[in-house]
Amino acid sequence: MNRHSQGTTSRNFIGFTALMLLALWAIAPAAFAKANPWGHASVAVQSTINGELAHEEPGYIALIGDPIHRRIFVENNGETKLMWVTVFDAQTSGYEPVCVYVLMFPGERRECNIGFAAVAGPSVLTTYVAARGVFWWTQVSATDTQHYYGIPGYPSVEVEAFINGEGASTAPGPELAEGDEYERSFLVTNAGRLALSNVKVSLVTAGGSNAETICVLDQLEPDDEQRCRSTAIAEVGSYEADVIVAGSAVAELTAEAETSLYYTGIEGERLAANPRATPDQGPAPLSVTFTPEVTTDTAIERYQWDLDGDGSFERSETVGRNQQYTYAEPGEYEVTLRITDSRGEVVDGTVKVTVTNSPPKIISAEASPSTGELPLAVRFSVTAEDSDGIASVAFDLEGDGTYDVTKDASGTTVTVTTDHVYETEGRFQPLIRVTDGLGETATASFPTLEVRALEEGSPSVTASASPQSGKAPLEVSLGATATDPDGLEMTTWEWDLDGNGAYDMQSTTSPDVTHTYQRPGTYFPRVRVTAEDGQTAEDVVRVDVTADFDLTVSVDTIDATLGDTVNINTELGGDVPVSIVLESPGGVVARTLVPWTERALGQYTDTWDGMDDEGAPVKEGEYRAILLYEIDDEIRRLDAGAGTGGQQYNPSRSRIPSSFKPLAGEPLKITFTLPRASEVTAFMGLFRVNTRLVTFMQREVLGKGTHEITWNGEDDSGALIELPSNESFLFGIWGWYLPDNAIFVRSGAHVTSLSVSPRILVPSSRAREESNREATLEFTLEGQAEIEVTIDNTETGTQVFKQTYPAFEEGENSIAWDGRGTDGDYVAPGTYRIGITAIDGQNHRSMTAFGLLQVYY
Question: 615, 632, 665: which is closest to 542 by C-alpha?
């Protein structure tokens, strides 16, 4: 560290100055009358860095290379004079004197200055001052320590907010339907030059009184960006929240950024059709599964499908089954689902399916011979296939962008050849273009097409591989034959086994080598021979290594609150980089179980406990285990969600009694058992009429096990149903298995029982009537949640009361109702349906538990 100082006395004058001062002391004692030679000796030192005190770490913050100015103040704070007051700068190499004061009187103060450029990292600057009193045995000293921290730049962070992938940092934001689940994501970028740690992303709503931590990023390097996500349920109205990002850097520095999150919640429709297509795009022929997702406050009586987009509904049914359809021709298809509810209302919903034309597949392309002396006659052979037929194959023989030869073809699989003589020495990389019957093209330039036209007298070589394809680990025997026009022998055989440009093996005796390919992919091993005259030749052969991959889950249902786990078993057919993620059916990543890592061929088991990346339980629902792996720089997905599941069945259920008495506290209870996690539709209809009266569940995802439905004889609005004469109720239930890689996580709060007492409420305002003036709603709660209470008039279906009560603990709980509606007035006499729903911290809504109550005046 280069330093400069001011206030230093030259050492050449030290002896002379000392003698002069001693003489002056001897002849002029009056001049030193204020100094007591027998008094107390003491020295003090205080320093600053660029004008600031910096005694505590990390101290003064400086940019690397900026000037550091240290001002060192030395004071004789004793009663006698001091001699040889020396200021030392303590460095790693020792103490370096920077200022010397031969004599200082009591109360005298001197300043010493040091300057240098800031270096990276923490630095401790220690100043040591030593002095001698009048008598040689009197010695005093003092120390001062300052700190500074050199940084390349100040920390900075930026954040952008998105909803369902759409920018949401400016008002009014995206439009969302009430009750829809949406993904909010935040892109956090380190815009500074310091690494950040513990970067916390928070969402602040309700005037700053409610802060929610979305995620905490452990580390964010300069210029790095990471995205954190969470889901929520849309509410009606204009939504605004502050997004605050704060992270820590070195030297106790912090970086903060703010933005806003907006959306506009639209009141949900009481009837809506939202068909889902899986997949919704791909090459022909494309097989698609359609799922009828609907929003309704009553029963759906008919589902109609226009699957080919021609305007006519070719399929119609009453259950809500999945539909399968295969699109043979490319194009864009608008599929329509039409639903009709029990009120006779009809609504359509559409989903777009894009079917593309797959480009032709070039199976092989070779040049033979690929190397030799001029003039070199080469035959090119190309094999390609396409379900729409191959129309032509074009050859760019020089690799200069101009197609020299185009040959017509016909058939779904063709082999086309062409011959060319190279008259000019050089290395050429021909290009092939194949066009199918619909005009889609594919181009390729394989190493096996490379031509090396050599000068006269050069050798030629032909490589071979056996086998040329197979599953990893694939043992391949590589060989070559070489000739020289002058009959010279080959002195060296070299092999680049994986085609990466580096020769791995060399032999002076044999061209044969055996190599095992552990990693799946396409390889182009290259042989190079050298003749006795030093001339060389090369050739390339293609080897295709394939692999099988598999993923299974040990169970399809876990309860995260009970510590349940699921084993995700993977089988890798070769050495590959892999990652395992858990996604919602909509593709939102809920947990990265295995970050990208290299794994060898074999079987692996990874355990998931139903937690997200932050260690909190995921929202209750369906998740799918996805294996990601990389082959030839392409990331591939193993996702059983598109090809398994969806099988329809009738779950087993309890016997339905011939009658029930809800007003007497004896509702109808139906238990049903799912052998696997499934989507469930359950409803009540009439025995002799094909109609639905009430829908209990509409494609609701439930875990494996036994479930219960409690019914008090009301429709979806809460109105009691009047059973026609000579009729009886008919219960219907359908299940659809989830995909083989699906896991249902039970983590939300649930209301497991509800009792209402007394069954007759007398909410009179007269003071003398004390009995039955309040109803007690007793319920059992699993998990912590807020409770939503709704009360509906069973005669009119009108909702008279709705209120949310916060912070209920797990266990037995109760809420009192005094018979007043939301408007504060007593409700009219009659029968009312009480509904209790648990809403947990992740906005998961439990199934609503219902009970009946009569109000009497």
Answer: 632
The answer to whether 541 touches 448, Cβ cutoff 8 Å, is: yes
C-alpha to C-alpha distance for 337 and 148, rounded to whole angstroms: 69
Measured CA to CA, the distance from residue 67 to residue 119 in angstroms comes to 10
Alpha carbon 755 to its chain's center: 43
- How many CA atoms, within 13 angstroms, populate the side-chain half-sphere of residue 608? 35
Q: What does the DSSP 8-state code read for residue 605?
A: E
Query: pLDDT by residue (tens digit) across 100-144?
Result: 999 999 999 999 999 999 999 999 999 999 999 988 888 999 999
- How far is it, in rounded angstroms, from Cα 82 to Cα 136? 11
CA 161 to CA 185: how far, in whole Å?
A: 6
Lowest-pLDDT choice from 460-474, 481-495, 624-638, 719-733 = 719-733
Which phi-psi region, left, alpha or beta, contains residue 838 (left: φ > 0; alpha: ψ -120 to 50)? beta
Instruction: Confirm if 604 and 580 have CB atoms less than 8 A apart.
Output: no
Whether 776 shows a pLDDT value over 60: the answer reads: yes
Residue 791 has phi, psi (to 5 degrees) of -130, 125
Task: Count Cα neighbours of 402 within 13 Å in the Cβ-side half-sphere.
Answer: 3
d(CA 357, CA 548) in angstroms, rounded, equals: 27
- Are the CB atoms for 120 and 107 separated by under 8 Å? no
Radius of gyration (Cα) for the chain, nearest Å?
A: 42
DSSP letter string over 649-708?
A: E--EEPPPPS--BGGGTB-EEEEEEESS-EEEEEEEEESSSS-EEEEEEEEEEE-SEEEE
Cα(531)–Cα(459) distance, integer angstroms: 7
3-class secondary-structure state, position 15: helix
DSSP code per residue over 408-465: E--SSEEEEEEEEEE-S-EEE--EEEEEETTS-EEEE--GGG-EEEE-TT--EEEEEE
C-alpha–C-alpha distance, residues 346 and 338, integer Å: 7
Helix, coil or strand: residue 161: strand
CA distance 420 to 398: 10
What is the share, in percent, of the chain residues with pLDDT greater than 90? 61
Q: Under a CB-based contact definition with an 8 Å cutoff, are residues 206 and 217 in contact? A: no
Q: In what order do the strands lie in the sheet with 60-63?
A: 60-63, 139-151, 121-132, 82-91, 94-104
> CB-based contacts of 552: which residues, under 8 Å, 6+ apart?
568, 569, 740, 741
Smallest Cα–Cα separation from 685: which of 644, 715, 718? 715
Q: Tell if the pTM clears 0.85, that is, is over it.
A: no
Q: Is the preceding omega at residue 595 within 30 degrees of 0, hence cis?
A: no
Strands (E), 207-285: 210-220, 225-233, 237-248, 254-266, 271-278, 281-283
And the tokens for 125?
Answer: 């600057």
**Burial of 416 by CB count in 10 Å (0-12 exposed, 13-18 middle, 19+ buried)?**
buried
**Residue 529, beta-bridge partner list:** 493, 537
Distance CA 101, CA 81 (A): 12
The token duo for 856 is 């009497």
Rounded-to-integer distance, Cα 819 and Cα 827, Å: 6
Q: Are 250 and 148 in contact (CB under 8 A)?
A: no
Nearest-angstrom CA–CA distance, 360 and 192: 47
**How is residue 683 written in tokens?**
């409803």
SS3 string, 19-56, reads HHHHHHHHHCHHHHCCCCCCCCCCEEEEEEECCECCCC
Quote the tokens at residue 518.
Answer: 């552990």
Number of H helices, E strands in the chain: 1, 70
- Read off the tokens for 554: 């040990």
What stretches of 455-601 adopt beta strand conformation (E)? Answer: 460-466, 469-471, 474-483, 490-496, 505-507, 513-517, 521-523, 526-531, 536-540, 543-546, 549-553, 557-559, 566-572, 576-583, 589-599
